[in-house]
Amino acid sequence: MSGNKASRQKPCQRCRSRSASDPPDTSTIHYEKFWLYRHCSSLQQRDRQAQKAGQLFSGLLAMNVVFLGSAFISSMIFNHVAIALADVWILLSILKVLCLCWISYYLLPPSRQPHAVLHRDAHAGPIWVRGSLMLFGSFSILLNVFQIGYSTILIHCKSRVEIVFPSIEIVFICTQAFFLCHHSKDCIQVQHNLTRCGLMLTTATNLLLWLLAVTNDTIHTEMESQLREVEQRFSGNETTSCTCPNTTICKVFQKGYILLYPFNTEYCLICCSMLYVMWKNVGRRISHHHVPHIKPRFKLQGVVFGPLLGTMAVVIGICVFMMYQIQATGSAPNRQVFVMYYSYYIVLLPLMSVGAVIGTIIHALEKRELDTLKNPTRSLDVILLMGAALGQIAMCYFSIVAIVATDPRDLLNSLILSYAVLLIFQNITQNVFIIDGLHRQPFVAAAEARHTDHAEQHEVASELPGEEEATTSIKDEHTGIPPDKEGETKEEQNHEAYDQRRVSMLELGEEIRKVSWSYIHSYSHLSWKRRALREISFFLVLCNIILWIMPTFGAHPVFENGLEKSFYGYSTWFVIVNFGLPLSVFYRMHSVGGLLEVYITA
C-alpha cells in the first residue's frame, strides 16, 4: 500500500511541476497558437522583405534616372557644343511620355479593381498642398503658353523643339495635377512593384525638371547680368541676332515668362513631395484607431493681434519690395536701397524668432499627448523643413565668412552680418516650433465644446426674442398703417424710402453686433495658451508669406549687393545662390502649410 501511494504521488508531483510552467489541459491549444503565430509571422516577414525589395528596386531606378539626367544637364552647362539644351529637352520629353503612360494605366485598371484602395492616408495631401499644387500648376501652364508664343514669334531663329517641349509639358502638368489631387491619399494594395516604380520614375522626372529650371534660370540671369555690364561700357550696341521684335505681344510673352518662371520650380518640388508620400503608402494598411475621428477645420477664431501685426508686416514688406525693385533693377543700384531692405529684415526676424520661442515654451507647458504613430507625411514634413532650411542657412554662413574676412565695420556689411545671423536663428526657432506642433495630438476638449455650444444656444435664445420684438416694433412704427397709394405726395414717398433705409441699416447693425459678440465670446472662451498659439501661428503665417513673395518675384540682394560675388568669384557665388535660393523659397512656402496645421490643431 505504501508503494502504491508512492507511485500515485509521483505522477502528482510531475503534474504539479508541469502545471507550474504550463497547464496540461491547454498544451495542445498553445501548440496550435504557436504554430499559427509562427505561420503568420513568417508571412508578415516575407511581406516586409518583399516590400523592402520593391522599395529598393524602385529607389535604384529613380537614382539611375536622376544621375542620367543630371549628367545631361551638367554636360549642357559645361559644354554647349556637345550637349545642347534641345538634347536635354528630348530626354525629359521621353521621361514625361513614360510617366504619362503609367499615370493613364493607374487611373484606368488598378484603381478601379475591387479592394485596390482599402485604406486612405488622412494626413497625406492636405488642402493647402492641393491648393498650392493647383495654383502653381496653373501658373506653370501659363508659363509654357508664354514660352510657346515667344518661340513661335521667333521661329526663324529657334528650333521646333522649343515649341514641342512646352506642349508636352502642358499635358504632363494637367494629367499629373489631376492624378495627385484625386489619388494623393491612396494606399494602393495591388501591383505594388509596378506602382512603386511608376511613382519613383515620376518623382525623378519632376526632380530633373526642377534641376533644369534652376540651372536654366542661372544661365539666363548670368547672361542678363553680363549684358548689363556690356551695356554700361558700350551703350547702344546690339550683339544678339535672335532678339524680340519691338511689338507689344512679344514683350508681353517675354515679361510674362520671366515673371512666372519661379512658380515652375515650386510646382516640381510640391509634386516630388506628394509622390514620395504616395510611394511610402504603397501596400500600407491603416487600422481604424489610426484614422482621426475628428478633423479640425480652419476657423478664424481666437486671433486678434496676430492678423494685425502680420498685416502690418505684409504691407510694409510690399512697400519695401516695390521700392527695391524700382531702384535696384537700374543700371547702378543705390546703396540706400540695400540698407532699407536689410533693415526691414533685421526688424522682422527678431519678432518672428521671439514668437517661435514663446510658442515652443507654450507647447512644453501644454498637457497634450504626442502623436507617436508612424506617419510618412509627418516624417516628410520634418525632412522638408530641415532640408529646405539648409539652403538659406548655407548662404548665410557663406555671407558671414565673406563679411568677417573683408570689412565688418562698414554700415552695409554690418547690416548684412546681422541679417545672416538673425536669419539662421529664425529658421532654427521656427523649425522647432513647427515640428513640435505637428507632432502633438489635435486639441479636442469635448466638455469645452459642449459648454461653448450650450452657451451659444442660450445666447441666441435670449437675444432672438428681444431682437424680433425690436425689429417688429420698428417695422410696425413705420409700415403698420400703409398709406393710400393714390393720395401719396412726393414728400411722403421720400419719407417712406428714408424709413425703409433706416430699418435696413438698423438690421445690418444688429447683424454686425451679433457677429462681433459671437467672435468676442469665442475669443474669450479659449484658454490663454490656445489664444497665444493661434496668435503666434497666424502672425508667422503672414510673415512667411511676405518673405516668400519678395525673393520669388525678383528681390535677390544676396547677389546684387556685390559683396559675396567679389569675395567668392562670379561663378562660385552664382552656383551657391541659385541652389540655395530656390530651397529658401520652398522653405517659406512649406512653413506656411506647417504653421496653418499648427494653428488648426491649437
Structure keywords:
single chain; 602 residues; mainly alpha; 2 domains; two-stranded antiparallel ribbon; 2 strands; 1% strand; globular; disordered N terminus
Give structural notes.
With 602 residues, this protein is mainly alpha-helical. The protein folds into 2 domains: 46-227 and 243-291, no CATH class; 299-453 and 512-602, no CATH class. The chain is 78% helix and 1% strand. It has 17 helices and 2 strands. The protein has helices at residues 2-21, 27-78, 85-107, 127-153, 161-183, 192-233, 248-280, 305-328, 335-365, 376-405, 411-438, 446-479, 490-525, 528-552, 557-560, 563-568, 570-601, and strands spanning 117-120, 186-188. The chain has a two-stranded antiparallel ribbon with strand order 1-2. Helix 10 packs across helix 17 (570-601). The relative contact order is 0.09.
Biggest β-sheet description: 2 strands, antiparallel
Instruction: Note the overall shape.
Output: globular
Number of strand elements: 2
Strand content: under 5%
- Tally of individual domains: 2
pLDDT < 50 stretches: 1-11, 13-33, 445-487
The helix content, as a percent range, equals: over 70%
Rg estimate, integer Å: 33 Å
Q: Oligomerization state of this entry?
A: single chain
- Output the number of helix runs: 17
* Overall pLDDT metric: 75
Q: What is the helix/strand order? A: HHHEHHEHHHHHHHHHHHH
> N-to-C terminal Cα separation, in Å?
81 Å
Name the structural class: mainly alpha
Q: Biggest sheet, strands in spatial order?
A: 1-2
